[in-house]
Amino acid sequence: MGQLNRALTITKKNILIYYLKGPVIIFGVLIPVFFFLAFITGGKQLPWSFLISGLTAMTVFFTATSVSPVIMPWEAQMNTLERLIASPISIYALIFGDLLASICFSFMITIIPIILALATNVTIMDPLTLILGIILASICFSALGTLLSTPRTNLPSNIMMLSSLIKFPLVFISGIFIPIERMGWGSYIALFSPLTYTMDIIRYSMQGTHAYPINIDILAIIISIIIFLTASVKLHEANIPYRI
């Protein structure tokens, strides 16, 4: 319980400090909005339920990967990471605190497109699956964010550049702008993106259509969570001594 309380304290600290940081607002809020506006401008023949499901998937993805990548390098840059490491807190609790702050931010902002969907008469056919999918996706992409924060740099800009090189291609290969079944050979590449399975769950919940069985989507996201968290813990354990 002691480590859990310390992790929750880290979460509270991260919420108060990082939610309003420039990179978090830009990459977590503004970019999904701009993508969506560009999408609806060029996709006037697409049904609204298709567009809003794409916005929901982009929101959960970008918000979850906007908080956790910047925390470690920012702490190192401000020389506060050394104090955290010197305190009686495990690396697991430290990562969990960062992860939970990212999950909360993602879930909080993702409520907005869901409210927009309901306000524009989009029928959510399977709300329980939608909620489960968003929770799992928030955990998955927050874990990806903690993994992206592992390089030995104390400059948040370097981490954000690296994360952009990974995040933007994923958006275009994961069935957000073009349904998976119409992507041709690109559908094989999409299999390696956890965002693909998130998109499939959300589209099923809002449109009733899906490219893969829903249980496969859920399993793929859970496997991604395990991979990202395991790699994140191992790399942070190896690299934190070089950041203080």
Protein model, in words:
The chain crosses the membrane at residues 16-40, 46-71, 91-116, 128-147, 214-233. GO terms for molecular function: ABC-type transporter activity. It is a multi-pass membrane protein. The chain is mainly α. It has one domain (2-242). The protein has ten helices and no strands. It has helices spanning 2-18, 22-42, 48-77, 81-86, 91-119, 127-148, 156-173, 186-190, 194-207, 214-239. α3 packs antiparallel against α9. The mean pLDDT is 88.
Strand and helix map with partners:
Elements: H1 2-18, H2 22-42, H3 48-77, H4 81-86, H5 91-119, H6 127-148, H7 156-173, H8 186-190, H9 194-207, H10 214-239
Helix pairs in contact: 1-5, 2-3, 3-5, 3-6, 3-7, 3-9, 5-6, 6-9, 6-10, 9-10
Secondary structure tally: strands: 0
Helical amount? over 70%
Catalogue the unreliable spans: none
The number of helical runs is: 10
Radius of gyration: 18 Å
Query: Beta-strand percentage?
Result: under 5%
Structural class: mainly alpha
End-to-end C-alpha gap: 27 Å
Nearest-integer average pLDDT:
88
- Give the biggest sheet: none
Shape: elongated
Task: Tell me the series of helices and strands, N- to C-terminal.
Answer: HHHHHHHHHH
Compute the number of structural domains: 1
GO molecular function: ABC-type transporter activity
Keywords: Membrane, Transmembrane, Transmembrane helix
Protein name: ABC transporter permease
Transmembrane segments: 16-40, 46-71, 91-116, 128-147, 214-233
